[in-house]
Specification:
Number of helices: 3
Strand order of the largest sheet: 1-2-3-4-7-8-6-5
Largest sheet: 8 strands, mixed, barrel
CATH superfamily: Sortase
Structural class: mainly beta
Shape: globular
Oligomer: single chain
Helix content: 10-25%
Strand content: 25-35%
Order of helices and strands: HHEEEEEEHEE
CATH architecture: Beta Barrel
Number of strands: 8
Distance between the termini: 30 Å
Number of domains: 1
CATH class: Mainly Beta
Length: 211
């Protein structure tokens, strides 16, 4: 298993506890999520062979912007890492809400699952950048603009809403043989000041994925 995969599995439970997804005090909820966001590494996954017709992987280059025309997303992308306790960072809760790329995952267009996070709501500031993520449908396009000046074009393959207690760690972080994308936010019914579920978008690099 590659270094990014080991670190990704260490933080995977934290993704399912994305802070700032509902109303209430965003600082308090972020603290609670961060305290809960740790796990132990999973066993290594076997290597896999790229499927026939898969898009050519791109060179490593960090994402700096993300566009999803179908739901009106056009956002800068910040970098997220791990905190001292092994929990994953989440984007800051601000009026100028942004998506965040988990920097221990591949960059968009590299072989493997590139993971981006965003809030569904940001406390007193209202809607988050991924508020309408659950409206995406297979075939919808996603564009990541990269630091090297190129873009990576993806097509949605699936949208899943899952309970946070059943977060599909392997499906999100497990080794894949082609360049894929994961977008994650909160969703489902609101219970108290927390959403019950996570919304996860799965997408794959298109054959004309680099421009």
């Amino acid at each position: 298993m590659s270094p990014y995969s080991r670190r990704a599995f260490l933080a995977a439970a934290g993704i399912g506890l994305l802070a700032g997804c509902a109303g209430g005090d965003p600082v308090d909820r972020a603290d609670r999520a961060d305290r809960a966001a740790s796990t132990t590494p999973s066993a290594p996954l076997p290597s896999v062979t790229p499927p026939a017709g898969a898009a050519r992987p791109l060179e490593r280059s960090a994402p700096v912007a993300l566009r999803i025309p179908a739901i009106g997303v056009d956002t800068p992308v910040v970098r997220l890492g791990l905190q001292a306790d092994g929990s994953v960072e989440v984007p800051a809760i601000t009026a100028d809400d942004r998506a965040g790329w988990y920097r221990y995952s591949p960059t968009p267009g590299q072989t493997g699952p590139s993971v981006l996070l965003g809030h569904v709501t940001v406390g007193k500031y209202g809607d988050g950048v991924f508020r309408r993520l659950d409206r995406l449908r297979p075939g919808d396009g996603i564009t990541a603009r990269l630091e090297n000046g190129t873009t990576a074009e993806f097509a949605v393959t699936a949208v899943r809403t899952v309970g946070k207690k059943e977060f599909p760690t392997t499906d999100v972080y497990g080794n894949v043989a082609r360049p894929e994308l994961r977008l994650i936010t909160c969703g489902g019914p609101l219970t108290g000041d927390e959403y019950r579920d996570n919304v996860i978008v799965f997408a794959v690099l298109t054959p004309a994925g680099e421009r």
